[in-house]
Design a protein that fits this description.
Layout: E1 23-28, E2 31-35, H1 37-40, H2 60-91
């Protein structure tokens, strides 16, 4: 799974004038691909950012909703895997580990 920033921001509000970074993928050597205000408030029809056009020109609120829809199932699936691993570990006798 790619790293991301602010994947589940609060849709309800933020201080006026803040630029929100919705997604970020580190691509190495200090470089990153992002989806931010320049995308979700764009007026041009062409998108070159990491969202592939999903958030382009949609406005901040819709872009946040789009990002949440993408990442929430991934986060929930990862949490389920972690909880299953914890349950499995709790079932092992003390001092034993899965081989």
């Amino acid at each position: 799974m790619e790293p991301f920033t602010n994947a589940m921001p609060n849709v309800a509000g933020k201080p006026a004038g803040d630029m929100v970074l919705l997604r970020q993928k580190i691509i190495g050597q200090g470089k990153a691909r992002v989806c931010n205000q320049s995308c979700y408030e764009a007026k041009s029809p062409v998108c070159h950012c990491i969202c592939g056009g999903k958030n382009h020109g949609q406005g901040e609120r819709q872009a946040r909703i789009n990002v949440r829809e993408i990442f929430l199932p991934l986060i929930e699936a990862q949490e389920a895997k972690v909880m299953e691993a914890v349950r499995h570990q709790e079932q092992l006798p003390f001092g034993d580990s899965a081989a």
